Structure formats: structure tokens, C-alpha cells
């Protein structure tokens, strides 16, 4: 599967989720690569922090241009089970290219209405791709969700007349996600109680069908 994390809002949690999803798939024995279409503060930076801290890579992190995304990614899919694409917030070109390459797109967003409102431009791009029968599946993923937030299975969100389903598995606001970003660590390497990894594992199960979907706890 090729899954792209998109949201034109900075700080939405794209890189954090892309890295943790790739890490979880690698832990489950899947052959996965993380593609960074955001030269500035994307997944490559995380991978570099991991390398600096002498941690094993677990999966390849590769910088890609919009042109490479559109050009079919050197046939990487043939040798890997999954590709995860981290995208920038500032480049509509990169987002469109990621939509061309991906079969599933996830839009991470905080669950509050104003944050969801800021997804409208990205939802519009997704709607255009779906109208052109490009990205087959798209969903919002609630990230940094406060305790008490819940999502009914099958829930949908409408923003500016655009409608998208919401993943039932959400990612909570947790210190280990915040620590992961600068250290190159995966959350299971930080949070030994496994709560953050549980968030990621449930989401991976729901999106990739690796595990049965379980409502977020
Ligand atoms: N679930 C979370 N809990 C706590 N902090 C988070 C979570 N997700 C992201 N963050 C923090 O929010 C900031 C933005 O996240 P990042 O993944 O870099 O967003 P984006 O790639 O969309 O710009 C980072 O400082 C990151 O550590
Ligand atoms: Mg980022």
C-alpha cells in the first residue's frame, strides 16, 4: 500500500504519524520505506536524529521530489510491502504529486472544529483527486486528541461542504510523541507502558488491515 499523510496546516502531526506508522509496520515485519517529500522538517530530519543517536534505522527513509512521486517512485513498490509518504504543508505541487502516487491518504488533524476547518483546502485537493479516481481512500485522523475525545465508528466530518470519513482509531496528545520528533526514537522506545504505541498500532490495524480495527481507548 502507498499511504500519504497530508495537511496543508503546519504542525498538524504529519511527520510524527508518518514516522510512527512506518516504525510500527517495520516492527510487525513488513517491508516499508518512508518517503520524505518535505525537504524542510520532515521525516529525513527524524531519520538523521536517529542516526546521530546510533539507533538502528529499522526502515529506509528516502527524500523524494514531486517529479519522482509523479514518475512512479522507481518501482519501489515491487520490493516493498508499504510506502509511507510524508508531505510538506507549503507545496500544493508536492501534495498533488503525493495524491497521484498514493492509494490511501490520511489527513491528520486535531479534533477541534477550528483545526478541522483548516483542513478544507487539503480536503478540496482530495475531493479533486477522488473525482479523477486517483486516491481511492481518504480519511481524517484525529491526532493530539485530548482524553475524552471519541469517534463513533463510521463517523464523517463535513468542512465547507466537503465530506470525509474519520478513522475510528485516534492518536492522543502524549509526551512520547513530542519526544520522538527531535530524538529519532519511536514511541515504543520511549513509552514502555505502550500507550502511544497502542494508538499507532490500532491506527495501523485500521488502515492497513494488519490487525482488526479497535476503537481508540
Ligand atoms: N500525538 C501527539 N502528541 C504530542 N505532541 C505531538 C503529537 N503529534 C505531533 N506532536 C508534536 O507537534 C509538533 C508538530 O508535529 P509534526 O509531526 O512535526 O507536524 P507536521 O509534520 O504536520 O508539521 C511537533 O512538535 C510534534 O512533536
Ligand atoms: Mg512535517
UniProtKB/TrEMBL annotation:
Transmembrane segments: none annotated. It comes from the Bacteria. InterPro entries: DNA_Partitioning_ATPase, P-loop_NTPase, VirC1. CDD domains: ParAB_family. It holds the Pfam family VirC1. PANTHER family: COBQ_COBB_MIND_PARA NUCLEOTIDE BINDING DOMAIN-CONTAINING PROTEIN, P-LOOP CONTAINING NUCLEOSIDE TRIPHOSPHATE HYDROLASE. This is Chromosome partitioning protein.
